Amino acid sequence: MSDDAHLKEVKIDGGIAYDGGFLKIHKDRVRLPNGAITHREYIRHPGAVAILPVLDDGRILVERQFRYPNEQVFIEFPAGKIDEGEDHLECAKRELEEETGYTATEWHFVTTIHNAIAYSDEHLDLYLARGLKPGPAKLDEGEFVECITATLDELLDWVRSGRITDVKTIIGTLWLDKLHRGDWKLD
Questions:
Q1: How buried is residue 92: exposed, middle or buried, by Cβ count under 10 Å (0-12/13-18/19+)?
Q2: Per the residue annotation, which of 90, 141, 143, 146 is the catalytic one?
Q3: What SS3 string covers the chain?
Q4: pLDDT of res. 186
Q5: Domain Nudix hydrolase: where (predicted)?
Q6: How far apart are the two ends of the chain, measured CA to CA in Å?
Q7: Tens-digit pLDDT profile for residues 121-146
Q8: Using CA atoms in the order 92, 97, 107, 76, what is the torsion angle rounded to 10 degrees?
Q9: For residues 92 and 168, what is the distance between their CA atoms, to the nearest angstrom?
Q10: Neighbours of 157 (CB within 10 A)
Q11: Are 52 and 137 contained in the same domain?
Q12: Model confidence, pTM
């Protein structure tokens, strides 16, 4: 790996501009590689997990959920915020059961993605879940989710057509396709 000093920005000072119940927005003054001074505003996020749940018949479990900032219902993989100090796999297991009612007997770490690198440090750890067993969902108060299933070909078509635009779901679908074809293997 090469030396990246010619690309790095250095924090001079700054702090929290907004401290919300879920997100913290920071505003820092930074020195650019050419010596100029500017500001950077960014969101600190605790991180999240997303689950790629594959049923025994090969169908894939996804959710339909209204997302307020975009004022529309999205098709997406089950996902949720990692609680402070929580093991990421345990978070994935918890979120799958809470949102869908399903538990899984087989879990595999897939990858970590950074979904908004220009303005947030949020990352999502993606997990493949198999050996799914149904049960009752345990949705949080104020959470409304509709679970549906789709084939891999349907998900790929929904990505291609723009019906699925959620980045974690697009990336997860592409991973499922590569794994299904045998092009990629999990460690």
A1: buried
A2: 141
A3: CCCCCCCCCEEEEEEEEEECCCCEEEEEEEECCCCCEEEEEEEECCCEEEEEEECCCCCEEEEEEEEHHHCEEEEECCEEECCCCCCHHHHHHHHHHHHHCCEEEEEEEEEEECCCCCCECCCEEEEEEEEEECCCCCCCCCCCCEEEEECHHHHHHHHHHCCCCCHHHHHHHHHHHHHHHCCCCCC
A4: 94
A5: 43-172
A6: 23
A7: 999 999 999 999 999 999 989 999 99
A8: -70
A9: 14
A10: 13
A11: yes
A12: 0.94
Which residue has 């007997």 as its token pair?
105
56 and 115: one domain? Answer: yes
User: How many domains does the chain divide into?
Assistant: 2
Q: Is 49 exposed, middle or buried (0-12, 13-18, 19+ CB in 10 A)?
A: buried
- Closest of 145, 134, 130 to residue 58, by C-alpha: 130
Q: Based on the domain organization, do 64 and 115 belong to the same domain? A: yes
pLDDT per residue as tens digits for the range 88-109: 999 999 999 999 999 999 999 9
Sheet holding 37-44, edge to edge: 10-19, 24-31, 37-44
Domain that holds residue 40: 10-44
**How many angstroms separate the CA atoms of 59 and 50, rounded?**
17
